[in-house]
Specification:
73% helix; globular; 281 residues; 0% strand
C-alpha cells in the first residue's frame, strides 16, 4: 500500500481491496476516528474503551509495512517512473485492470441500478481524471489543510491516489516542497487536514459499505475502471493526460508487464485471500 501511494494513479486502497483486507481496514480506521472524537469531547473513558476495540495486531503491522515501503521503495519507484514511465504504467495498468474483476465479484447481484451506477462512475472518473491543474503558485496556507484532507480520502478509496488528486489540485509540488524544505507549520496543516478528512470520510464510507454494500462496491468497481485512463501506458505513462495507441516497436514489454501485473492480482486472490466483506462492529 505504501509503494502504491507513491504512484499517481494507484491507490493504497486498491491494494487493500486486492488482498481482501479493505472492509476490515475501513472498520478499524472508523474506530480510530471514534477515539479521536471521544478525546476531543473530553470523554476519556469512552476514548480508552474505543481504543481497546481497535485491532492493533492487524493495524500496526500494516502501518509498519507501509512506512517501510515508503522509506525503502519510494525512490526506486520514482526512478522507474522517471526512466521507464511506459513500462511501469503498464505494470500498474494490469494490476488495476485485474482489480476491476476482483471488486466486481464482491457485488452479489448486478441489477439495473448497480449496472447504471457502475457505468456512470466509470465514465465520470474517466473524464474527470483527464483534468490536470497547473501548479498553484504561492498557495494560501489553509489550502494545505484542504489538500491533506482530500489526499488522505483518496488513499483509502480504491481507484484514485492521493498523489494524483494533489496533481489535479495543483498542490503536488507544493506539498513535496514543504516536505523537502521542512516547513513544519505547513506540514502540520497537511497532517491535521488528513486526520480530519480520514475521520469524516472513513465513517461515511464504513456506513455506506455496511448499509449499501453492493451499490458502493459497484461504484468502486466503476471508479477502478475509469481510473485506468491515468495508467494507460502511451504515450508517456502517467506523465500527462494525453492518450494514444500503442507504439508498434514498444508494445511487447509493456504488454507482458501488464499481464504480469494482472497475473499477480489473480494469483493473490487464488491463494486463499478472503475478499468477502468483514462485518462492522
Amino acid at each position: 500500500m505504501g509503494s502504491a501511494d507513491v504512484v499517481p494513479g494507484v491507490s493504497g486502497g486498491t491494494v487493500a481491496l486486492i488482498v481482501g483486507i479493505y472492509p476490515r481496514l475501513i472498520s478499524n480506521i472508523r474506530r480510530g476516528a471514534g477515539v479521536l472524537s471521544a478525546f476531543v469531547r473530553l470523554r476519556f473513558s469512552e476514548g480508552f474503551e474505543r481504543l481497546r476495540s481497535i485491532e492493533w495486531g492487524f493495524l500496526l503491522p500494516l502501518l509498519a509495512g507501509m512506512a517501510v515501503a515508503l522509506v525503502t521503495l519510494a525512490r526506486v519507484i520514482e526512478h522507474f517512473l522517471e526512466d521507464y514511465p511506459v513500462e511501469l504504467s503498464a505494470l500498474f495498468f494490469g494490476l488495476v485492470f485485474a482489480s476491476v474483476f476482483v471488486a466486481g465479484k464482491m457485488v452479489s447481484n448486478w441489477d439495473r441500478l448497480r449496472m447504471v451506477t457502475f457505468i456512470v462512475v466509470a465514465v465520470g472518473a474517466f473524464f474527470l481524471l483527464g483534468l490536470r491543474s497547473g501548479e498553484a503558485e504561492n498557495p494560501a496556507t489553509w489550502i494545505f489543510f484542504v489538500a491533506g484532507a482530500v489526499a488522505i480520502c483518496a488513499m483509502i478509496l480504491p481507484g484514485v491516489s492521493g498523489s494524483f488528486l494533489l496533481l489535479m489540485l495543483g498542490m503536488y509540488e507544493a506539498v513535496l516542497a514543504a516536505v523537502n524544505d521542512r516547513e513544519y507549520l505547513v506540514l502540520l496543516l497537511v497532517i491535521l487536514g488528513a486526520v480530519v478528512g480520514l475521520a469524516l470520510f472513513s465513517s461515511v464510507l464504513h456506513w455506506a459499505l455496511d448499509t449499501y454494500h453492493d451499490l458502493v462496491m459497484a461504484a468502486i468497481t466503476g471508479l477502478l475502471l475509469g481510473s485506468l485512463r491515468v495508467l494507460w501506458p502511451w504515450p508517456n505513462g502517467i506523465d500527462g493526460p494525453e492518450l494514444s495507441g500503442p507504439i508498434a516497436d514498444e508494445f511487447a514489454a509493456p504488454f507482458l508487464l501488464a499481464v504480469v501485473g494482472a497475473g499477480l492480482v489473480f494469483l493473490i486472490t487464488r491463494l486463499g485471500t478472503d475478499s468477502e466483506p468483514v462485518a462492522a462492529e
